[in-house]
Write a sequence for this structure.
């Protein structure tokens, strides 16, 4: 079995079912598979060899997922690039990945021209949209000139399928090498953990260069013969309009996306079709879950997913039945994965004690591309070390406490920012919040709250500190508060605390 066969099999069973919707475009599974095969056969004609990287710089779109499956069917390695990257960052990914094929949208032609003369490894350029100069292949013309028959390339589950570059919140992004086996096992885990059904219509609002949107949301929908509605740019009003128009049944997004949706005026949109919400990147507070249940009257459940790029990405999933009962929990480990909570010497910790989450299973990456040192560090002892701190209860449910690097040590006490953030989220005037540690001459570090207020809300520093003091041990309360208009986030929705620390350290 290989990832490309997921589309092949679904297209054979449901050729006329709508597979993809993106703005005004619609493709049936037969059309989707035919176009994918044309691209795959065309790249074979150009000499693509197994293991070669196919780099992509596109917004969420139909060509992007055609490239995903075309690469998978012929042994190419799909390498999506963050469309928010600067020219220099795009250059780094293309150069580091050794991509020989590079497909990009017309929106990025100016960026590509800035770096093209330095790209010595890229041999074939494809442009989508605008008429391309002779040295660049036009995507649609290329497809028309190729055959739609299934390509015949022998593949193994151990073959590489994707290089997914990490968000790069610290240092250069690392390329997680994911095999066909990794993706297939992640698919099984996601279907079972999220209790997925055939034929659903899913709204894909997360960027498809991220493993959650690509491997959990999109691939799951293709495997179960559903319809994927691809959103090029996240806009909460547009998202709500699409839900009503396309009768979307499943929406997946980071908590920040749900908070923006909930900030819209009530009663303006038809939300009756939604039956399931899934979320990840950070904890979705119970208060937000309750508000979502009111917004979507036919909602049967919310599923919390915890994972990381290196696990393709699923590690744990909290099912709908436990969503409100297990507060701030990400659920038990997915079915085909071992998870442990360990100390700094990788020794198992007792129930309830905080330690690092490590995991082992067939969905864990092969390693980091061209980075043996980082691979050995991340996979030491045969276990993926996530860098996340958590505790586990007696039933095996996991509670993420914080990132190991974000823990604050003040006066010898360990303080976990996420615990304080959850308290802040519960305040009716607070829209978003982050907790960071800043240097303190007496305590080593002290707690600083960075707050985004809801529209029209006002608070003082003293009010924030007193609110935390009334819900937490005194040593955990913020010593200082900053009010900002928004928090910096990476593409997966996680707050960039390194950016916040650098910004506020300059003031001290």
């Amino acid at each position: 079995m290989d990832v490309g066969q997921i589309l092949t099999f679904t297209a054979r069973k449901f050729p006329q079912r709508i597979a993809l919707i993106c703005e005004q475009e619609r493709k049936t599974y037969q059309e989707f598979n035919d176009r994918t095969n044309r691209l795959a056969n065309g790249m074979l004609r150009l000499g693509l060899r197994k293991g070669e990287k196919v780099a992509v710089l596109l917004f969420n779109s139909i060509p992007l997922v055609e490239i995903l499956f075309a690469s998978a069917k012929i042994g190419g390695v799909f390498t999506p690039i963050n469309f928010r990257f600067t020219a220099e960052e795009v250059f780094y990914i293309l150069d580091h990945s050794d991509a020989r094929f590079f497909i990009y949208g017309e929106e990025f032609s100016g960026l590509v021209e800035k770096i093209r003369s330095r790209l010595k490894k890229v041999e074939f350029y494809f442009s989508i949209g605008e008429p391309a100069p002779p040295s660049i292949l036009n995507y649609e013309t290329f497809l028309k000139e190729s055959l739609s028959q299934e390509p015949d390339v022998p593949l193994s589950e151990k073959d590489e399928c994707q290089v997914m570059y990490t968000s790069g919140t610290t240092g250069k992004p690392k390329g997680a090498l994911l095999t066909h086996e990794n993706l297939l096992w992640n698919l099984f885990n996601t279907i079972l953990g999220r209790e997925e059904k055939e034929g659903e219509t899913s709204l894909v609002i997360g960027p498809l260069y991220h493993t959650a949107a690509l491997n959990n949301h999109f691939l799951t929908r293709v495997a179960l013969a559903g319809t994927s509605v691809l959103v090029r740019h996240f806009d909460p009003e547009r998202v709500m309009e699409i839900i009503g128009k396309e009768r979307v049944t499943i929406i997946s997004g980071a908590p920040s996306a749900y908070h923006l949706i909930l900030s819209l005026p009530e009663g303006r949109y038809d939300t009756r079709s939604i039956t399931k919400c899934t979320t990840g990147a950070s904890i979705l507070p119970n208060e937000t879950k309750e508000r979502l249940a009111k917004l979507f009257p036919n909602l049967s459940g919310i599923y919390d997913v915890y994972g990381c790029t290196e696990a393709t990405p699923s590690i744990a999933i909290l099912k709908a039945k436990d969503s409100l009962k297990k507060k701030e929990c990400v659920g038990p480990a997915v079915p085909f994965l071992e998870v442990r909570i360990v100390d700094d010497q990788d020794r198992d910790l007792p129930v309830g004690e905080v330690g690092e989450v490590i995991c082992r299973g067939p969905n864990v990456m092969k390693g980091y591309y061209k980075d043996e040192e980082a691979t050995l560090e991340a996979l030491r002892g045969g276990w993926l070390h996530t860098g996340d701190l958590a505790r586990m209860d007696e039933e095996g449910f996991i509670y993420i406490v914080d990132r190991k690097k974000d823990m604050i040590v003040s006066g010898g006490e360990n303080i976990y920012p996420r615990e304080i953030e959850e308290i802040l989220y519960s305040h009716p005037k607070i829209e978003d919040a982050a907790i960071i540690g800043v240097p303190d001459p007496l305590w080593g570090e002290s707690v600083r709250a960075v707050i985004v207020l809801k529209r029209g809300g006002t608070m003082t520093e003293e009010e924030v500190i007193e609110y935390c003091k009334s819900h937490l041990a005194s040593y955990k309360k913020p010593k200082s508060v900053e009010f900002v208009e928004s928090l910096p986030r990476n593409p997966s929705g996680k707050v960039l605390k390194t950016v916040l620390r650098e910004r506020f350290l300059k003031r001290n």
User: Anything to note?
Assistant: The chain has a mean pLDDT of 93. The domain at 410-505 is CATH 3.30.300.30 (GMP Synthetase; Chain A, domain 3). The chain is about 30% helix and 25% strand.
